[in-house]
Amino acid sequence: MPAQSPISGNARGEQAAASSPSSAPSPFNKIPILNSQSRSFFLFLVCGAAIIGLVVVFFLLKGGNLKTGEKKIDPNSPAATVNGEVIKFGEYQQLLNSQRNYWENVYLKQEGATLPEGFLETLDKYILDQMITHELLNQFAISKGVDVTDDWARGELEENVVKPQYNGDWAAFEKDLAENYNSSLESVYKTTKQEIVVRNILKTENIEQANFDQWVYDLKQRSQIEYKINL
Question: What residues contact 84, with CB distance under 8 A and at least 6 apart?
C-alpha cells in the first residue's frame, strides 16, 4: 500500500506528523497558546503524553477487518510495518483508545473546545499514520547517528518544565501527571524524545519549518510501508 500521511497539528504537532494536501486539520491547532513558553511546552508534552497509557480495550477481527463480537487480535501482531520494523497492534490500540478518551472526555470539556467535523471517525487512521511517521523519523535520526536517550529527554524536561513549573520537584511533576493528566513520566519521555528528533532533523538537514511536512511526505514515498489492518 502507498505511504500515507497523518493529519498535521499545531506548531509542534506539525513537527511530529506530516500531512498530505488532502489531510484534514488536527484539533491540536485549537489548543490555546499560553503566555509562558515553558507552560506552552508543558501543555504540548502532556497533551501528547495523556493519550498514552490508559487501559487497552481491543477491537476484534474477522476477515481482516476490525469488528466487534469476533476473534481477538494478538497484541503482538503487526498493525503496520515501516521498512521492516513492526508497529504492534497492541501499542496501536492502546494509543487509539487513550487518544479517543482524551479528545472525547478531556478536550471537549474545555471551554470553547471543538473538533473538526469527522475527526473522531477518522481517528483510527490518524493514529496509525502518526505512529508510522514517528517510526520513520526515529529510523532517519538513528541513520544519522542521533540517539535520543532518556537522559537527554530528562534534561529538556527539567529545563523547560520541572524547574520553572515545579521548582525542580520531580515528584510533584509525576504526581501532577498521574492525577490531572492520567499520564506518566515514561509517556512524557516518549513525547519529548520525538520533539528532540524533529528539532535535530530540521537543523541537520537544513529544513525550513514550512517545508517539513513535504520533506516527511517525500521520505514516506521512499520508504517501505505496509498497513496490516483495514481502517
Answer: 224
207-229 tens-digit pLDDT: 999 999 999 999 999 999 999 99
* Domain layout of the chain by residue ranges: 11-227
CA distance 143 to 83: 13
In whole angstroms, give the CA distance from residue 229 to residue 66: 8
**What pTM did the predictor assign?**
0.67
The DSSP code sequence of the chain is: ---------SHHHHHH----TTPPPPGGGGSPPPSSHHHHHHHHHHHHHTTSSS-----EEETTEEETTSEEPPTTSEEEEETTEEEEHHHHHHHHHHHHHHHHHTGGGSTT----TTTGGGHHHHHHHHHHHHHHHHHHHHHTT----HHHHHHHHIIIIIHHHHTT-HHHHHHHHHHHHS--HHHHHHHHHHHHHHHHHHHHTT--GGGHHHHHHHHHHTS-EEE-SB-
Q: Given strand 71-72, what is the order of strands in its sheet?
A: 65-67, 60-62, 71-72
CATH of domain 11-227: 1.10.4030
- In the block, residue with C-alpha cell 515501516: 82
CA distance 128 to 122: 10
CA 209 to chain CA centroid, Å, is 18
